[in-house]
Amino acid sequence: MLGLSVPTLAGYLAAIVLLMVTPGPDMMFVLANAVRYGTRAGAVAALGVAAGEAVHVAAVVCGLAAVISASPVLFTVIRWAGAAYLIVLGIRALRGAGGPDAVAAGQDGRAGRAFLRGLVTNLLNPKMILFSVAFLPQFVDPAAGDVTAQLVLLGGLFVAVQLTVDVALGAGAGRLAARLADGRWSRRINRICAVAFVALGLRLAAG
């Protein structure tokens, strides 16, 4: 496949699977949406995150990601914007915490917003910029053919694996939350999601 060896592709897939199951802002966002608003919202959030990944891959192919990572000022602006966005989501989740009626309303009324929020959460994560610049090129072999085509292939596999993992996790979290959908558990879940968002925002701000 584009001259890339089977061991190289196998090693790449193993690496990204391990990365995908490591908790981070994207995974927490998908899980939070699935738990608060249902399986559908979790899947839509995963699609938004995957779309953000596709943008990062395109930026690597075009060389834009390298420019951003090389600019301390621009990189810091993106980092602080991402941190602020996550903290705002956490505060909104805390203010919107409620019982089963609130969760049921969210399943229908807020699932559509999950895509955009997932996209923005991923795009404003500066660590994804550094990761894309540092990780993808490691598996490119200039002697194996077109470098751009290899980056597109590797990036496409990355997006596909992340989408698969996030959708599976979101589906599981959504089903579990549905079984615990009484007033007490709903309020606890909302608070946990809110705290998770704020903690991730603070962590991102701290660098």
TrEMBL record:
Membrane-spanning ranges: 12-32, 44-68, 74-94, 114-135, 147-169, 189-206
| Protein's membrane topology | Multi-pass membrane protein
Is Transmembrane helix set as a keyword in this record? yes
Protein's cellular compartments: Cell membrane
What GO terms are given for molecular function?
amino acid transmembrane transporter activity
Question: What Pfam family is a match, any one?
Answer: LysE
Main location (coarse class): membrane
One Gene Ontology cellular component annotation held by this UniProt entry:
plasma membrane
Query: Which UniProt key words apply to this protein?
Result: Cell membrane, Membrane, Transmembrane, Transmembrane helix
Which superkingdom heads the taxonomic lineage of this protein's source? Bacteria
Protein name, entry field: Threonine/homoserine/homoserine lactone efflux protein
